[in-house]
Amino acid sequence: MSEFRPDYLHQMMAGRDRRAQVLAVTSGKGGVGKTNIAANLSICLASSNRRVILLDADLGLGNLDVVMNINCRYNLSHVVSGRKTLEEVTQVGPAGVEVICGGSGIEELANLGQFQRTRLMEELQALQNAADVIVIDTGAGIHNSVIAFCQAADHVLVVTTPEPPAMTDAYAMIKVLAGRRFTGRISLVVNMAVSVTEGKKVYRQIAEVAKRFLDTPVYEAGVLCKDDHLTAAVRAREPVVLAYPRSKITAMLVAMTARLARGAAAGQSTESFFQKVVNWFF
Predict the structure, then answer these.
(1) Which domain covers residue 195, as residue numbers?
(2) Helical H runs in the chain?
(3) Is residue 2 part of a domain?
(4) I need a surface site. Which of 19, 192, 233, 277 has the fewest CB within 10 A?
(5) Residue 195 sits in a domain of what CATH number?
């Protein structure tokens, strides 16, 4: 098994625009491993000498602090209320990933006055301009806040498993994005597969239906097979790519990150990611 090679990912990401690419990691239902994927994906990208910001946007239910083994004492709601600065709530996690715990901060933006909102947006915009990649760990399911983050992203990574309910909900998420005329890239990762063959079959089923009935291309992000190393890493509160760099699951995560990097493109919109999200609530 080859070891985690961040230099390869750096080569894949080279040459991109300075404006941060925004990748939303989402799922139609909970329990499919979305947060673990977002965390390990962020670490793979950060290990390739990229500045990565990981935003926990699973409002009220986020557990990135557990996966990344950091203390999320403060979150975006403290910034919104003016009690903390954005820098003060940003935690430096493994591999230098900068983690912002969301709490209910995004939704509370709707209660801000114009001056406070403008000041906060300027701070968030500066952060986006300084980063290379922003990874958003959204909530699960088709809710307004989840759709808001996905709609504002350049690239949406939908996570599913081979279980029929998860597949159905993943397709439902893709259908909503297609119905909202999402202009970014949609990719699908099949997690917890028994084999690569099974995972690829699931991908083809969903992608073919999306193309036929929605006229929406769904790109293959990869297959992540069941691996006891991941279970052990979760129990140890350590990302698997760092805990077990030579494991099969780490190799698959690195391959997935490289595949996503090949399809990466900076956002072309003149409106920032954070402004798009805020506008959703007004």
Answers:
(1) 19-280
(2) 6-13, 34-46, 64-68, 76-80, 86-89, 105-108, 114-130, 144-152, 164-179, 196-209, 228-235, 240-243, 248-262, 273-280
(3) no
(4) 19
(5) 3.40.50.300
